Amino acid sequence: MTSALAQFASPDWQSRPEPILLPSGIPGIQLPRGALTEIHGLASSGRTSLLIAILAAATARQEICALVDAEDAFDPATAAQAGVALDRLVWIRSAHNAEHALKATDLLIQGGGFGLVALDFGDTPPATARRISLTSWFRLRRAVEHTPTVLLSVSLQPNARTCASLLIECRREKAAWAGSPAAPGRLLRGISVRATATERSKVCSPAFMAQAI
Amino acid sequence: MFACLHGPGNLTALAFEFSPTVEQTSADTVALDVSGLDRLFGLPQDIAVAIARRAADTGLECHIALAANPDAAICAARGFRPSVPSVIPQGDEAKFLAPLPLTLLAPSPELLETLDRWGIRRFHELAALPPLGIAERLGPEGLRLRDMARGEAERKLLPIQDPLRFEDEIEPEYPIDLLDPLAFLMARLINGLTTRLATRGLATDELRLRLKLENRETHVRTLRLPVPSLDSKAFLKLLHLDLSAHPPNAPIVHVWLGVNPQKPQAAQGGLYVPTAPEPIGLELTLARIKAIVGEDRAGSPRLLDTHRPGAFRMDPPSLPTAVATVAPPRLTLRVFRPPRPARVTLAEGHPSFITAPSIRGKVIDRAGPWRTSGDWWTLDPWSRDEWDIALSDGVLYRLYCSPAGWFVEGSYD
Prior knowledge:
The complex is a heterodimer.
Chain A: H1 2-9, E1 21-23, E2 30-32, E3 35-40, H2 47-60, E4 65-69, H3 76-81, E5 89-93, H4 98-111, E6 116-121, H5 126-130, H6 134-144, E7 150-155, E8 164-178, E9 187-199, E10 202-204, E11 207-211
Parallel strand pairs in A: 3-7, 3-8, 4-5, 4-6, 6-7
Antiparallel strand pairs in A: 1-2, 8-9, 9-10, 9-11
Helix pairs in contact in A: 4-6
Chain B: E1 2-6, H1 11-16, E2 22-26, E3 29-33, H2 38-41, H3 44-57, E4 63-67, H4 70-79, E5 86-87, H5 93-97, H6 109-118, H7 123-127, H8 131-149, E6 166-170, H9 179-199, E7 203-213, E8 218-229, H10 232-245, E9 252-262, H11 279-293, E10 298-303, E11 312-315, E12 333-341, E13 343-347, E14 350-356, E15 359-374, E16 382-391, E17 396-402, E18 405-412
């Protein structure tokens, strides 16, 4: 009795257990299960390459993943080349409707069993994305809590604010071209991306190369 | 112990829910062997009550009789019209059946006329006749009728083979034009079919719904499930969502539902295998999402066996088979659907300035053109010259020129 009361009276009885972290496919970045992770960055900053790398790593772990594509921008061909097992992916195309995308995400999380649910607002104008109320993000965060699902959001700017447990900012350092400019046979080899992950004021900035060929 | 059900409706299905040995005695009479059911229900009266309760649940109005031999049960079910089932105690068959008319035994017209001339019109009158005299005057047919009248005829049932066709139908009293009343009827059909499947240890992977409409058209919907299941609530919700998306164009006057019997899937999950969505639950979730985003906008993408850009189709999620491998990060294309038409200024045959919806800038680096074509042997050929370009707005795009003009296909991200 005394020990039980002492357990409740201990200073950290309100603290949450540490979330299970999963490898993202990019060294240095780990994703928490049962929490919202937000990836943001400008166009061509490598956000989608990071998302696809995460999906590829999750499907390689034999997890079933879902991608809610608010702008219908997902390209299955390049995703398959990047290693995403398409038969383990459920793709929802919400056709430029953010509200539909949020509803679909909520239904997927409530359905359960997914290893990763990604919400892609990558091309949604910031004004539209900002109109998503904080209540919606809280609802998603609450729904994914205590589940083994990783919830990901990709956007131009951070929108979920305090609801996101992990914030990853992507920035393109340079684009790698092969061959001399204006010469035939010049190739886009890929882009170098710096991903800055911020979690409870801890910052980690690994870099990776997203190869085109 | 044998039971007999007499009345209109699908009595065979009801009988098969209680016994595998069922005889279709006539179009409106079914006899079944209920030996052994006492272990489940108790006394014969309890067995009769259980059958009557199930008949009431399925909307059947039938007369039920239980006896030690099938012919006594058949005669009692056909002859008596009590509000409660008739249970004939063993040894009291003759006394119980005594007041019934001889026409219930279905004798030949000549034999019936002879007995009528003798003044014998009831079971007890025939039962009281001496067997030797009947054998001399009426032959073996007369002896058989006498045994049946005394409730002593012993025979085996001629069981019918269950055709394993699981279908049921219902005709509402008035045309139905709303989905909720229809859902009540569908729930009755689904519950009955899943119960019949469960009694045989089966499940289903296909639901076929056929609705006859007031304008004489037929509305047919078929739902295929990823794995065989018996989840009647999920079936009802799936049909409800499907009919919401594809409503019939007139009130409904007849509902028919059939299911495809399958062996249930038995699989053991591994300790180290990640959890996956429950297949029927995933089907239900996708049906709900399709009701929001559109019929063909949710599923698993499948690449088509062609080089045509953007060729894929959406399939229902299936059980994954291939083992995926981890690859290094790849530069990914974000596709604009549809491609954005562009106005392109050329310099020395190469793009130098691009204007398209939400895109405008000077080309500061480029690679290409990459010429591709295909399907020239079909009625729908395609050809295009592609460029990878870096614009002054800092974004990498894929640009292509086709016979229809210039388009921005997407951005690299």
